[in-house]
Structures are given as structure tokens and as C-alpha cells.
Amino acid sequence: MCYQNNNKTHDLKKNWKKIFYPVAIAASLTSSFTWADTTIRMLHLEADPKVVAIWQQVANDYEKANPGQHVKLEYLENEAFKQKLPTLLQSDQRPDIFYSWGGGNFQTRVDAGLLKDVTKEMKDIKPRFSEASFNAFNYKGKQYGLPYMVSQVGFWYNKSLFQKAGVDADKIVTWDDFLGAIKKLQKAGITAITTAGGDKWPVQFYWALLTMRQAGQQGIQDAIDKKGDGFAGEDFIKAGEELKRLVALKPFQPGYLAASFGDSSGNFGDGKAAMQLMGDWNYLFQAQQSISGEGVGDNNLGWMNFPALKDGKGKATDTLGGIAGWVLTSEASPESVQWLKYFSNIDMQKHLAKINMIIPVVKGADVAIENPFKKRIAQNIANSTWHQLFYDQAFGANVGSVVNDISVGIVSNSLTPEEAAEQVQEAWEFE
Length: 431
Hints:
This protein has 431 residues and is of the alpha/beta class. 48% of the residues lie in helices and 14% in strands.
């Protein structure tokens, strides 16, 4: 992807040190290092040029303070990143640092010897982070990277379309309330939900959240621990049945099974659907993917948590999302370790939070959040009694791909809830 410069990005880069990144702080972080000439390769999937411009300016500052060190930011699109990374990590073209989620995939890579143990090197900056976020990249007592941001999945909705259909978001508390709102939207001639069956993972959010609401934290943990019927148990079948109730209402846009995440977000941004179940990152992405480039504006945009199941064991405050960050590959240089420590500072976290790019993990950086949606989501995560990592990350690549597949299988009516649950359990038994 080729990034296009614009005046805002240019000004941001021009004024970075003066406004966001005090020279004194930059100097204090780098003045004592005299590494040999080396290139540090950092692989990411960030598509927003504003964020990349900020990262690049931090890299430029670091390079100036550390002559001979060169930071190279390398981009792969989200799906390409997931598909190519396993092969890349086994090759001589592996990066020094790469973007990562916690959970099963991360742990599998540790077990395979692909990641670098940096427990000693990161000990001095551990107090900088919230404990939960720092520990997301700790496995069997050893640290392999640093967190960058947290996220939550919920429903973004269009207030004007809700109003047109006579739907009050504040009264959607239970799943039955939600299904009732779907019917009202359809009666008003409005497409209720846009989703992305082509990419699969957006559809997986429905099955994941319904299983969380039905089984609860203990039920999910029991399945992970292979107790009882595991993922083939009654709660997981019940969650699939509830998803079938939604599908029976035909709530999705035409062609949803082939749609990409970009297609789906563009539909929402263009006002072609009332809701989209997606993470907090979609606040900006839906605007970027819209025809106007403006998307659903703040005055017309709403956010609500996933509804509760009437007889479910899960809590309405339980959240699904991610803790994303950076890990180092096994042969990463000492220079790469030092760069990642420098990169993970409060000044950049505050700035990215201020411009609505991340919900930060560095302590104290959350005070910079101004956007009301991001504030609310940050508070949701802070108040959550259980923050479950995305299933396709938490359960590892093999099981995660099955979860994605069976979710699409349920909504396309090619799998029954029982068959779907059994397939997940079978995949888990082979882990």
C-alpha cells in the first residue's frame, strides 16, 4: 500500500518534537547508547498514514540520537500479515520485531523457539504498564515483548436510522431486545447489520460473544481445560442456536458472505446499514472506507455493548477484545530491544490516544483520551470483570480458523449449532 502525504500529516511530522515529543525526554532515553551500525526491521499492519507518520518521526528521533542505527518500518495488510507471517518467521527474511496479539498464536511461537526472551531487558520498564497488558506477552514466567494497545468489540450504530425505525438503543439490554430492534429496522426498510463473511473473523465475533454470554468465564475456562463436553457442550450449542435466531431474521446486507471488512465498514460509513459489530478501531476506519471520507459523524454515531442472554451465565460487563503489542524474534539484536523500549513511551501513547488512534496501555496515558466513544470503551475495559481475548487469537491458529469457519457456517446455514460446536471441540482436542 502506498501512503499519501497530506498537509495534516506533514504538519504533524514538522511539529512533532515541539508539541508531542519533548527533546529532553528523547535525549534522556537515548544518550547513553553507542551501538554498531545496524538496521532494525519492524513489521506492522497499521494502514493509517497518520499513525505511521508518528511512528516514523519517533524512529527519526531515535536514529538521530543513536548514530548507526536505522529503523525500518515494514507494512503488510491485515489478512496478508496473518497468512504470510508463519512462513516469514521461518525464513532468513524474518523481521526483528513484529506486531502481535497475546494468546495461543503468541504462545505457539514461543514454544517453537521463534521469539526472544527479554525478561531481564524489560524488567526496568515493567512498572510503566498496566499489569494485565504487560502480562499478555509473558509466557511461563518469561517476557517476549511489550503491549501497545487494548480494544473492545461492540455494536456501532447509526442514531438517525435507529430513530427512523423507532429503536431506542438504551432499551436494548437483552438479546431478545436486540432481535426486536432488528425487526423494527426491517419494518422501516433499513438493513439492520453489515458484516464481512468474506474475511470470516468479523462474523466470529457473534459466536464468540454469544458463547461468552451463555457459558460465562468459568464455562469458557472449563472448555479450555477440556472438562466435560468442552466446546461441544450445551452452552456452546445454545449460543449457536441464538445466532440462528438472528440469522432467521435475515439482518445482513446483500452479498454479506463475500464481503470484506473494508466493504462492511464502508457500508456502515455510508449509512447503508444501522449497525456493525466491530472493535473500537472502526471509529476511524468506517469513515476512511466511506465514499465521502467522513463516515457516520460523531453526532449521529452510537456505541452499545453486546446484549446479555436472559438465562446466560455471562455478565453484561464481560468484554471481548484484544491486547496487541510487539514481540521480538529469536535472533533480534540488542539494538532492537532498546528501540522497542524507546518506542513504548508515554509521550507517543498520549498523542495516539489524543487523536483517537489507540486505547493506551502505558499508565497515565489514558488522561489524553478526549473522544467520548474511546473514553467509554476504555472505561468498559477498566470495569470489566473478564476481558476475553479474540477467540481466533486466544485459541491458536488452528482452532481459531475453525472458529471462524463454523461461525460463517452457522450464518450461511451450512452447519447446525451442534455440528459447529463439535468441530471446535474436535479441533481443540488436537491442540
